[in-house]
Write a structure and sequence with these properties.
CATH superfamily of the largest domain: PPM-type phosphatase domain
CATH architecture of the largest domain: 4-Layer Sandwich
Largest sheet: 6 strands, mixed
CATH class of the largest domain: Alpha Beta
Number of strands: 16
Structural class: alpha+beta
CATH topology of the largest domain: Phosphatase 2c, domain 1
Number of domains: 2
Distance between the termini: 48 Å
């Protein structure tokens, strides 16, 4: 009995910690959505680290107009006189993700255990120096969550900086152009393609920016998650919600292995931001190439098409849309076996809204015919063939809506 009681208490503590971290994540993303000032975001970051994570020593450095600036600290009175040395050390060390400080490092880093970095492609956005976290079984999770929060804050501040600069210098047309650039930062620009599997994408935003979303989140060489979503509405508001949505998905998917629990947490997080005024259709699939299985949930999204063994199947198992209802009702998880030369086509409904020059919408059978005709091609060639077929069907007509496509093909035995 004592053993069972200890196990239950351990589980309750772990669940309590995750709920606490999730509430703080929601508070920060909600503050970002309400366009809180940089100073307010830094204050929330400071309070989160000091009071929730029990960090005893901290400094957050953010890049601003090409210069590194310390914007938040915890119990580091001598930091000002060492700030330039710290920046020089960080640059010289070329920290790409996380650096563990030890006794060989300069004395001005005394009391610091780890340095975390936030990058956009090849450009560093922020560095956080952390010290004094009590080491226990949850230390790794705490560091991961601090890294996630820092990432969200740094990207939000960078977006604020970019928007402010653009608003000061250019017209509304240039504001839209900047929003398009920010959105492109969130779309994966490098997808894997090897002798085991390949991914390829197609993204055509309507009027430059839109609310379509897709993502590739790797966990190992043989396990990864694919996501496809469509935010209600268009323009800047949809693009900004999509940016917040991506950050939430990437954070939650690493904390919930169970897709059903993940979807419920995601729905609550989105509702906190949108107040049920917007919704998102969403599809997520967890691919495990070792076990050759795929688990998925379709949350009100247009069903992806799965081609294998000469047949096409729609992936429909799941629940209702995200962010609109308090209760998602029954959440059903689908499972599919992975077979050689299997092809998965996920897309947003803009693909099915295409009209030809006579105003006739593209029939679903046309998409299935395209898949059957080009299923033997590698994934990149298939995606090009799909785009050519769509262009041929629409003729001179413009695409009527945002279009996002993410294709996967399995080459292994």
């Amino acid at each position: 009995m004592e053993s069972n009681k200890a196990i239950i208490e351990k589980l309750e503590n772990e669940i309590g910690l995750k709920h606490l971290l999730l509430r703080n994540l929601l508070s920060i993303t909600h503050a970002i959505n309400e366009n809180k000032s940089a100073e307010e975001l830094y204050s929330m970051f400071n309070e989160f680290l000091h009071w929730v994570m029990k960090v005893k020593k901290m400094a957050l450095f953010i890049i601003s107009d090409g210069k590194w600036e310390c914007v938040s600290t915890i119990d580091w009175p001598e930091l000002e006189e060492n700030a330039s040395n710290i920046v020089h050390f960080i640059k010289a060390t070329e920290i790409e993700r996380r650096y563990n400080v030890d006794e060989k490092d300069p004395p001005f880093l005394d009391g610091i255990d780890v340095i975390m970095s936030v990058w956009h492609k090849k450009t560093p956005l922020a560095y956080t120096l952390i010290g004094g976290i009590d080491f226990d079984k949850d230390t790794a999770d705490k560091y991961d969550f601090i890294s996630t929060i820092t990432n969200i804050i740094a990207v939000a501040i960078e977006n604020k900086r970019l928007f402010k600069k653009q608003l000061e210098q250019e017209s509304i047309r240039q504001e839209l152009k900047l929003a398009e650039q920010v959105q492109k930062m969130l779309i994966p620009d490098a997808l894997p393609n090897n002798n085991l599997f390949g991914l390829a994408s197609l993204y055509i935003p309507h009027d430059g920016i839109g609310g379509d979303y897709f993502d590739y989140i790797p966990f190992s060489d043989t396990r990864f998650t694919l996501c496809m979503g469509d935010v209600s509405g268009k323009g800047i508001s949809a693009a900004l919600l999509m940016a917040n949505f991506q950050a939430i998905v990437r954070s939650l998917v690493r904390h919930y292995r169970d897709l059903g629990a993940f979807i419920i947490a995601l729905n609550e997080a989105v509702r906190q931001i949108t107040k049920s005024e917007k919704y998102i259709t969403f599809f997520i699939i967890d691919v495990d190439l070792e076990s050759k299985t795929m688990r998925y949930i379709n949350a009100g999204h247009y069903p992806p098409l799965l081609y294998k063994n000469g047949a096409i199947t729609q992936l429909t198992e799941g629940c209702t849309i995200i962010g609109f209802f308090d209760d998602l009702g029954e959440v059903r998880e689908g499972e599919v076996a992975i077979d050689k030369d299997m092809l998965l086509l996920t897309f947003t409904d803009g693909l099915t809204d295409i009209l030809n020059e006579e105003g006739i919408i593209i029939p679903e059978t046309s998409l299935e015919e395209i898949i059957q005709r080009h299923a033997d091609e590698d994934v990149n060639t298939f995606t090009k063939s799909l785009k050519s077929a769509l262009d041929k069907y629409r003729g001179s007509r413009a695409f009527p809506d945002d279009i996002a496509v993410l294709s996967m093909k399995y080459y292994g035995n």
